[in-house]
Design a protein that fits this description.
heterotrimer; A mainly beta; B alpha/beta; C alpha+beta; A: mainly beta; Folate-binding fold; 4-stranded antiparallel beta sheet; two-stranded antiparallel sheet; 6 strands; globular; C: alpha+beta; 52 strands; elongated; binds flavin-adenine dinucleotide; binds zinc ion
Chain lengths: 90, 436, 949
């Protein structure tokens, strides 16, 4: 059971959180082309390595945040960013 | 086409009881199941991934289209991916007409596989029960049964009494937290020996000239003319692959790497609607056979079958967290055991012997991504998620046709990558969340 | 071979004053307290315990411990019990497994006659023709399944789980492990010491040396005096992410087996070594045992393992066994020293007993062959931590390579040495573990305090300054000059492995899969190294080149009961539930809730609502309390319609779509105050919508001021519906004018109901009748319900359940998200186009909904079968005429008590969506009936006059 560092609660068992998947920025709905919008909906980088992703501290503080995790080793690095879902993406 | 890979002997030494006896008597070894050959510098097609999909594709390229100058490359051993780790359930009772037609063809190919490949893949048509624990899943079962019947697939909804007759170990009383209200019963569903399918395809393809290259890792895909860096990306075309054993030139690359599909596609500059999640499974110690069918419960995220060796094989839904690490978790076994005992309270003294996991390439609509991509010569047969074992024969057959003819065969048209541009997803989403 | 009981041994674990009577294959036997099942039987002269899987060869004791592949027995309803480990209890009913008709006369033993054809994997090569016979073959093969029998009436007995947060967990209580535990505890760590065997001490327990026994006594005393928590007969079954450990405790006083979950800061792996069998002809014959087995039998249980022994030894343990045997009065016919390149070649005799040993060309009469050929390092826990152990041919075993900093190895796993050296290494490991545990604690603390781990914030591991243990040279003894058994449980011989390698299954993984070697109940503990060695030999490679298989959890099997624990799956019920139960309710499970489905006759319930008044408990309805100035903006963003101008006291219906335009949820939201709203969601959507709302607020619009509190279970929700609803509600309500003028349809009031203040009441309902939905504080729910029931006796009030409500909502044509919609149903398909305001700047799913507006989509429509008595099945397909082409499906269908005819909702292709279109519905019976698409969704009261009343 992975220990996930919540920015508020500190390390928590991953079962206490909801995994929100790869972080991504929402295109501007006013200008997005179908391709951009569907890229946002469906396409993923899915790398084997460092990845920013979103988590929700379901059984704790109920904050959404992003975190950088290595998908090959399950290590974390960098401070989690509360209230974020972009993970540095524009 | 070069002649080097071609075999003088066109048929492999036949497997049969008589041959077994003959060799047993003489103490002869059987010849190698596939050759150990040098990696050449050029092939007509390179299939990446030595799982059931890659091997089936190579087999049908050779058998149906005479394209034999083909290399199947795998970074580990054949079957080392999900193909050697799955729970080997096959069935055709899908929800959408396109899904049913596709998987039904696969089941037909499985039924004749032992004779086609001359290896006993132990296709065990033992029936498949998908349990419904509430009225909404019962409704979905009915929906599936109706669609199945219209497509000529044997599938119907049955009640608790009949379920009890088929699988007496199930608790069909009304006590449980998840009472068994009914089930979708699919008599042609069952299990197949997954390793034998891998070996059977490899052996048959090998004898037609296809080469198997294990411990051959693809590091890059060489492209020209594309929009992206290094000529990769839409508009470009494939010219070769770079491996840990050297470069290979080839005009056609088929990506059959399941859990690793996104990494390989990225090498060609193609983004996929895929995330990689582990799927875990476990077996118990053997006991005398008591469970004659495959049992699946979507609400409880569990499916169960018993091998001829007496072990219960369990599987579940994919792990929520995307990762390429396949070490497995304790909570998986805890939840699994809880859910299994909910269905079969009598087996609490059975012991869990081994757990493992494999990688699954999950798509948003629980359907694969097959066929051509915006990069010429780069084809995908991916997005197989938790259900790709049963689809291997038909996928190989159809992908081979796509490669050979340059056109998308009708059966796989609904699964094109382009559906994610147009937003026309396949409707398996509702039914397939634990759809083994 | 004849085993027998010796006089009392100084080291024995028996209480000879307590006799235990039990049964073995129906016959009575006696043993002593402290015996294992196997030792008691051996002492009584039994020497065949099982039959092998494939050839049904008789099998006797091999290792006399947990891992003994030949000692799996059935005890009562408990299959596959390790007789080499399980303590004898009075009254046990022990049976041999997988034999027929009996252990001594087993029919399938005939298989060994055709052994040469039943080579590994033979089944892949045969039984293919004729194809129709395969199911029969399969049934026959299945009768070979080894293992015990399951009794399906076995109750799920009491199982409990325990959580622990120790600083250091030590797996294995041999001398090194004990020292590690003691040293870590002395350094201030909280330590858990877990021992697989019934007592601590490891190999010292069965050593007859006085000095070893003195050390053991000293260690035991030190443990007793320490704060170390010791668990015996318990196993660390797995090491998972971040040192999350599974531990199974088999000797809990109450629980049959208990699963302990521990988040250890540091894990010390000290499992010792497992003695490896040697491969030669006849090595699976009863009478061939490991040196450990000999010493355990003699020293722990006072069992004399034979009369005349040959000892094959390549190490000091073998030498010690020879000494023990001599001391126990066993005649030593020969000692063959493996260190001098001498080998045993075969064990000969009858099928059930050893008669002679052939070594160096000499035939030596003996009834016992004791083998000490080397060790397997059980590196499982290290593997699970990502370590890839390396093989050292000079020491003939694997050693750890580079485990992570929070996993340390000591004892035999780490190397060899004198007892003092092993103890010193253990103690140093314990100190290091305590230091590292403190570093982990510090890091966790920092993460909590600073609310974030910082780059490079990896624990600063205390450097490993332990003096490494040496490695004793050991001859590489895997296979002799003959072939023999490699995997005893699977009946896989070295010949099979060589043949597999020749056939191209030449990596360990392939060979393992093909031959099934290492796949049986001991999971490679005894077999892995010999398997790898056989392949290496066939390929002319070294063991290191061939590599090893990955050990997978669990380390030792554990019961499903222990893993499942109490099977704790709670259901939710509302506080009115006792009333429902007292009034003949029939319940239905809906998601996490148990809900009233009906109270006997749903149609009558419907009629009562349509003519009088009914009450339904709709507590599971999702409820979110919203506070703050920016709520209208939030609602505009989440719902497809507009919310900026909703006045206080009004409620409005809204539909939510996901970003892909698919219908996500629906419900009404009411404005209770200027900055206070109550949002309702579908029952099943309650949790998901809450997270969805939080996600938008926290990540997309963090500057908006809205506070969300889920109040689903804080309120009981009661819908009062029917023409007499106002009359009924007015009898129990204070402070609100209920007249239609001052409290019209789609409005909300705060009221005191049945004396309960703080109830919200709004005029909406799913039934299409005049309705008041009352949300009362949960604790008073039952009271409010009963007050309404009492007050309405003369009005004909009665309860109605989910089924009645479903009928009535269908009469009104209201769709249910998830039933009438599916995972691809886009907003416009619901027919609620006027509620999709594409002129808003932004809302969830806007672009997709805008594009969808130009597409022709499948539509949700009301449908009536032309024959009013035919109720199609929900899921019945709508097809084109006589063809099998699918054009839609029925999503809801009921007989309407109000209209006296069948009514449906369905999804159809756009070409069929216009009112008046005739469609063909395929019933499950196969019959095709004709039906008509209606103009409105509502089958009943399309103008909605009744609910406005
Ligand atoms: C536990 C589990 C249970 C399952 N149960 C079922 C079931 O009951 N029924 C069912 O139908 N399906 C099931 N599945 C799914 C099914 O196993 C897979 O969908 C299917 O095996 C995919 O086959 P494949 O050939 O596409 O991929 P894989 O078998 O995964 O093969 C991909 C191969 O690509 C290779 N590769 C990756 N990267 C590279 C590279 N860079 N260079 C070279 N080679 C590379 C890998 O080594 C691997 O061998 C299950 C899956 C799992 C994990
Ligand atoms: Zn938190």
């Amino acid at each position: 059971m992975l220990l996930v560092p919540c920015p508020n609660c500190g390390p928590r068992n991953s079962a206490d959180l909801r995994y929100g998947g790869e972080s991504h920025a929402r295109p501007d709905p006013a200008t997005a082309t179908p391709q951009q919008w569907r890229g946002y909906l469906y396409l993923r980088d899915n790398p084997a390595g460092w990845l920013w992703e979103t988590w929700y501290c379901r059984s704790g503080c109920r904050r959404w945040f992003t975190l950088e995790r290595n998908t090959a080793t399950n290590e974390f690095r960098n401070p989690p960013i509360p209230g974020d879902k972009r993970g540095g993406k524009a | 086409m070069t002649g080097i890979g071609r075999r003088l002997r066109r048929r492999p030494p036949k497997y049969s009881a008589a041959a077994l006896a003959w060799r047993g008597m003489r103490g002869d070894y059987w010849p190698r199941i596939w050759r150990d050959t040098e990696l050449k510098s050029s092939y007509d097609a390179v299939v990446i991934g030595g799982g059931v999909h890659g091997l089936a594709t190579a087999y049908y390229l050779a058998r149906n289209h005479g394209i034999t100058n083909v290399a199947v490359v795998d970074k580990a051993y054949l079957g080392s991916g999900a193909s050697g780790r799955n729970t080997a359930i096959v069935r055709a009772n899908y929800l959408t007409p396109e899904g049913v037609a596709f998987y039904d063809r696969s089941l037909q190919l499985y039924n004749s596989m032992a004779l086609d490949l001359n290896i006993n893949v132990m296709m065990s048509e033992r029936g498949h029960l998908t349990l419904a624990h509430n009225d909404s899943s019962l409704r979905t079962m009915n929906w599936r049964a109706e669609v199945n019947k219209l497509q000529g697939v044997n599938s119907c909804v049955i009640g608790p009494d009949e379920i009890k007759k088929i699988a007496p170990a199930l608790d069909t009383s009304s006590h449980p937290r998840y009472p068994i209200l009914g089930a979708l019963y699919h008599p042609p569903g069952g299990v197949v020996r997954h390793d034998a399918v891998v070996w059977g395809y490899a052996r048959a393809a090998d004898y037609m000239g296809v080469e198997m290259h294990q411990k051959t890792e693809v590091l890059d895909i060489l492209c020209e003319g594309g929009d992206g860096p290094d000529g990769k990306g839409p508009g470009g075309k494939v010219v070769g692959v770079r491996t840990n054993r050297g470069d290979i030139s080839t005009p056609v690359v088929v990506n059959c790497t399941a859990g690793w599909a996104g990494l390989i596609s990225a090498m060609a500059g193609v983004r996929l609607p895929i995330t990689t999640h582990p799927l875990q499974a476990a077996v118990t110690e053997p006991v005398k056979v008591f469970l004659p069918t495959v049992v699946v419960s979507g609400s409880l995220h569990v499916y169960i079958s018993q091998t001829d060796r007496g072990e219960l094989v369990f599987g579940a839904a994919v792990d929520a967290v995307a990762t390429y690490s396949i070490r497995g978790s304790l909570e998986f076994t805890e939840e699994l055991a809880g859910h299994v005992l909910e269905l079969m309270p009598g087996i609490s003294r059975m012991r869990l012997l081994r757990q493992w996991s494999g990688l699954c390439d999950m798509t948003p609509d629980y359907s694969p991504v097959m066929g051509f991509t915006p990069v010429d010569g780069f084809l995908v047969d991916v997005g197989w998620g938790t259900y790709g074992f049963k689809a291997a024969p038909v996928s190989g057959e159809q992908m081979a046709e796509a490669v050979a003819t340059g056109r998308t065969p009708k059966l796989i048209a609904p699964f094109a990558l382009s559906r994610f541009d147009s937003g026309e997803l396949v409707g398996e989403k509702g039914a397939a969340s634990v759809g083994h | 071979m004849t085993m027998s009981r010796l006089a009392a041994q100084p080291t024995e674990v028996l209480d000879r004053s307590t006799k235990l009577r039990f049964r073995w294959n129906g016959k009575r036997f006696d043993g002593f307290e402290g015996d294992t099942i196997a030792s008691a039987l051996a002492a009584a002269g039994e020497h065949v315990f099982s039959r092998s899987m494939k050839y049904h060869r008789p099998r006797g004791i091999l290792t006399a411990d947990y891992w003994d592949p030949n000692l799996l027995v059935q005890v009562g309803d408990d299959p596959n019990v390790r007789a080499g480990h399980r303590r004898l209890e009075a009254g046990m009913d022990v049976r041999a497994q997988n034999v027929w008709p009996s252990l001594h006369r087993d029919i399938k033993a005939a298989n060994s006659l055709v052994a040469r054809f039943l080579t590994a994997g033979f089944y892949y090569k045969t039984f293919m023709r004729p194809a129709w016979l395969w199911p029969t073959y399969e049934r026959v093969l299945a009768t070979f399944a080894p293992g015990g029998k399951i009794d399906l009436d076995t109750p799920h007995r009491y199982h409990d789980k325990r959580y622990m947060h120790p600083d250091v967990v030590v797996a294995g209580a041999g001398p090194a492990g004990i020292e590690a535990a003691l040293a870590a505890a002395a350094a201030g760590a909280r330590v858990l010491l877990v021992e697989h065997e019934h007592a601590v001490g490891g190999h010292l327990r069965y050593s007859s040396s006085d000095s070893d026994q003195a050390v053991l006594a000293e260690l035991r005393a030190a443990l007793d005096a320490s704060d170390v928590e010791v668990l015996t007969n318990s196993t660390v079954t797995g090491r998972y992410e971040d040192n999350w450990l599974g531990i199974v405790q088999r000797n809990h006083p109450i629980a049959v087996e208990r699963l302990i979950k521990a988040r250890a800061k540091v894990l010390v792996a000290a499992p010792g070594l497992i003695e490896r069998p040697y491969v030669f002809s006849g090595n699976d014959r009863p009478g061939v045992i490991t040196s450990g087995a000999a010493r355990r039998l003699i020293n722990l249980w006072g069992v004399k393992p034979g009369e005349r022994a040959v000892v094959f030894t390549a190490n000091s343990d073998g030498d010690a066994a020879a000494a023990d045997l001599a001391r126990a009065g066993v005649e030593i016919a020969a000692v063959i020293d493996g260190r001098d390149h001498r080998r045993v070649s075969s064990a000969q005799g009858s099928s059930k007993a050893l008669q002679a040993v052939v070594a160096g060309g000499n035939r030596i009469e003996a009834d016992l062959l004791v083998v000490a050929a080397g060790w397997t390092a059980p590196t499982s826990l290290l593997n699970m931590a990502g370590d890839r152990p390396v093989h050292d041919p000079a020491a003939a075993r694997f050693f750890p390579s580079d485990p992570p900093g929070n996993v340390l190895a000591t004892g035999g796993l780490a190397g060899d040495g004198t007892l003092d050296e092993l103890r010193a290494h253990g103690a140093a490991t314990g100190r290091l573990a305590a230091q590292r545990a403190a570093a982990v604690a510090h890091r966790l603390q920092a993460m909590t305090a600073r609310a974030r781990p910082v780059d490079g914030d990896e624990p600063a591991w205390a450097p490993d300054e332990r003096t490494p243990l040496g490695r004793d040279p050991h001859p590489e003894l895997y296979r002799s000059d003959t072939h023999g058994m490699v995997d005893f449980s699977e009946d896989v011989g070295s010949k099979d492995l060589v043949a597999a390698a020749h056939e191209g299954y030449d990596s360990v993984e392939l060979a393992k899969r093909y031959t099934t070697s290492t796949m049986g109940p001991s999971q490679g503990k005894l077999e892995t190294v010999n398997t790898v060695a056989a392949i290496a030999e066939a390929r002319g490679e070294t063991i290191a080149q061939v590599g090893t298989t990955v050990w997978r959890p669990p380390y030792a099997p554990l019961t499903l009961g222990a893993l499942a624990g109490r099977v704790f799956e709670p259901v939710r019920v509302s506080s009115i539930h006792p009333w429902h139960e007292a009034n003949g309710v029939s319940t239905i499970i809906a998601g996490q809730w148990m809900r009233p489905d009906h109270y006997g006759d749903p149609a009558a319930e419907v009629r009562n609502v349509r003519t009088n008044v009914g009450l339904i408990d709709v507590t599971p309805l999702g409820k979110l309390d919203l506070r703050g100035p920016d709520i209208p903006k939030l609602l505009n963003l989440l719902y497809t319609n507009k919310w900026s101008k909703l006045p206080v006291g009004k409620v409005r219906y809204g539909m939510m779509c996901s970003e892909d335009g698919v219908v996500l949820d629906d419900g009404v939201t009411g404005r209770l105050g200027s900055e206070h709203y109550l949002m309702t969601t579908t029952s099943s959507g309650a949790g998901g919508v809450w997270e969805w709302v939080e996600n938008w607020l926290q990540t997309e619009r963090p500057d908006w001021k809205v506070h969300v509190t889920p109040v689903t279970t804080a309120y009981v929700s009661i819908n009062v519906a029917g023409p007499k609803a106002r009359e009924l509600v007015s009898r129990v309500t204070e402070g609100v004018d209920l007249s239609p003028e001052s409290f019209p349809y789609m409005e909300v009031r705060l009221a005191t109901v049945a004396g309960v203040a703080g109830c919200f009441m709004w005029r909406i309902g799913f039934t299409g009748e005049l309705s008041f939905e009352i949300h009362a504080p949960s604790g008073h729910g039952l009271h409010v319900w009963e007050a309404l029931m009492d007050a309405g006796q003369d009005l004909g009030v009665g309860p109605f359940g989910l089924e009645g409500q479903r009928i009535m909502r269908l009469e009104k044509g209201h769709f249910i998200v998830g039933q009438d919609t599916d995972g691809l149903t886009l907003g416009p398909s619901t027919g609620l186009n006027p509620l999709i305001k594409l002129d808003k700047d932004d809302f969830a799913g806007l672009p997709e909904l805008a594009w969808a507006a130009d597409r022709s989509l499948p539509m949700i429509v009301a449908i009536q079968p032309d024959d009013p008595n035919v109720v199609p099945d929900e899921a019945g397909q709508i097809v084109r005429g006589d063809t099998n082409e699918i054009l839609g499906r029925i999503t809801s269908a009921r007989m309407s008590p109000t209209l006296g005819r069948s009514i449906c909702l369905g999804q159809v292709e756009p070409e069929l969506a216009a009112g008046g279109t005739k469609v063909t519905v395929l019933l499950t019976s196969g019959e095709r009936v004709s039906a008509t698409v209606m103009d409105h969704h509502a089958h009943f009261d399309p103008a909605g006059e009744r609910l406005r009343g």
